[in-house]
């Protein structure tokens, strides 16, 4: 290599060194560079962001992952890890000058241990497959994102995934014990322990939800729970969305922690009913689905208590599913709400923000007011128990200006979430989609601390660059914009 | 200031600047320097380590804490934070050249919110005081370290405290939502959120259990739970410690998560019985105390299920407390076990290690074997459900060599905990006491990562220096020693 040659095309030369290096570490069949082969990796579940990586690698062993990382570290090449690609915030979007590291070949269940109530699996194992493997012991893995048939546990850890049952059973971080992680430098770390707690700083929690920016997860030990003896669901109808919101707080204040507590408003109810024929009351302004689980006796007791609270909160109708078939039907309606809304509108924009439960009534009222102002219908379908909102804004991208209005409406909802003490994302992560909203959520002190933590793992910023945590510079620019638009401080709050 | 003067006594000069600075920030009554005033701060609950700080400050506001930290950062003076000083690993031991920052004046309960099931308190609020304040709403704060009458929530966060009920309700990290933290540079950060999860890296979990090495906790928002309708305890006697250990795993595998699951062996039973007259079976080799809580119906169902498992596991006697008075008496025996053992031996050494539950039988067998070899009796009193062992080694410090034998025995127990996949501390933290054992627990990769995380918050190492995470150099030296003693790898493991 001469200096002259380097000067002619340093980029091509670096790419050549990378590919040559990767091919020395992996069989050629596990290194993809043909654009046709790269195409399936160009986006995750949020397909508005698309980018082809330079190369896709499909390692099969931890040693291979270590060698790949070590090579990329040496050559200072960005690396983006990818599980099943079901994420909804663009977190797995490849770097065009980097390696897309797929964990698709890591799909072994290594151990299921009922006496210790835990299982050790590779990161490419599907979420549901863990529960299937534990079923023989009467156990299951609790977090159940709606993509659980497809999404993998490694991705769940990266996004700290939740699901319908996280109100009672917690998020991914509350249901894992130990991780094996490969650092950017190619070092293998074991973090956490097979016990309640490990000494030292809590790197297990730090890694969980870090969106692939601190290390590559190559093994996960999860907690298992005993499958509850019985689950039952209560459906309550309300003639007012605000009353339904108030009922949510009243249930929690009564000391009941439902396994799931979901809310749908009229538009969502009707769309879901037309699609799934779940038996929902079509004329209700809102319904709550409240699932109770536990022992037979416990569930019976809680159903009585929940029915009482719902009635006192002004429910116009309270129905307990008569049998398992009806329980499944109630849930089918809820689970098909998103595609059902998709049928009644050319386009919809799914928001994901979280608020303290006590603010549900006022935030729902505000969204409905904005919906009228913008002339954009909103269907609300969400995890009411944890205050995790999913307003679906219905719009038509072909109508001039509607996409822009929709985006503005969405931004205001997220800003309102932050203003009432909530967050800009409940379970979908920040990724590419919400990186600007992070500037609303955090001040420079917290953002600087995030950058310092990132630098403790990956000082060169090679792991999943450009995601999840904005630069202070970006926020400073956006901050100016926000003031210009007069959106901060928020005048609407005075109206409540 | 001349260079000459600085050269004569730089140390005295720096001290003078510090004191002058502190007195400009705080009223003189909140800055203690008289050795008599410093004495109460020389140690925490582990009184084998004693050291006087240079100065004690007792700030009353967050702004004062920020100003103190900013001053100390400027002058590069070490700072050790202190709650109630009930810690058991020397974590609050002052630096002789530094500031001891007491949070004793931060004792306001700022807000209790039953609808959102949370409370916001200052860090100097006692653990039990939170539950007392929430009682009017039928709620409580779940983690209950045995020092809960005295220990404060700030210290609980710093140590990630547990308690008898953490098997079911989790550690401190699982029961807090939000923290306000002052950094070494004096910046105020808000971390976490009033919702299930916050975007960005999980600094909330990272701060929890960080033993005062990352920042000063100045406000805590905790989760509250509804007080269970009923709690009941089942006492089971066994003629063999190993059988009792096996019963613990069998209960969990049956899908029951007791609110508490405690074990005592013969020596502990007899000492506790002589002291507290709890009605324990004096001739049993081990007893289990299994507490169930929940609704009336649920508790009844679980009691039946637990009794069945205990009988099948070979219990010689299974008794349910006949009334609340007997339930309290059963717990009184357990809670007084440590002082009771203190009465039957001149000295005892309380170990704190955690193991995966499935290894309870073999670890208990090994401890008993070592006890015979060393001629040192051991009383076992511990949180069996989470595998958190507390072997109390009985010895007489006045007998030549017994302290050294006891310490060696203790080290071997902790090493065994690590070898079976557990940890060197269950709930007492690392602090000063276990810093060398961290070298057994972790390899250089994990320790380096801990140091990098520490540097992301406090690059100069001014916060609680010398605690919790050993230098690689220290471990390298100890590693050599261990190999020399032939204790690693562990030959005993082959004998199981």
UniProtKB/TrEMBL annotation, chains A, B:
Keyword Transcription regulation: no
Annotated organism of origin: Sulfuricella denitrificans (strain DSM 22764 / NBRC 105220 / skB26)
Family matches, as InterPro entries: FAD-bd_oxidored_4_C, FAD-bd_PCMH, FAD-bd_PCMH-like_sf, FAD-bd_PCMH_sub2, FAD-linked_Oxase-like_C, FAD-linked_OxidoTrans_Type4, Oxid_FAD_bind_N, Vanillyl_alc_oxidase_C-sub2
FAD-binding PCMH-type domain mapped to chain residues: 49-227
Oxidoreductase in keyword set: yes
Sorted UniProt keywords: FAD, Flavoprotein, Oxidoreductase
Domain of life: Bacteria
Name of the protein this chain belongs to: FAD linked oxidase domain protein
Obligatory cofactor(s): FAD
One GO MF term attached to the UniProt entry: oxidoreductase activity
Pfam family, one: FAD_binding_4
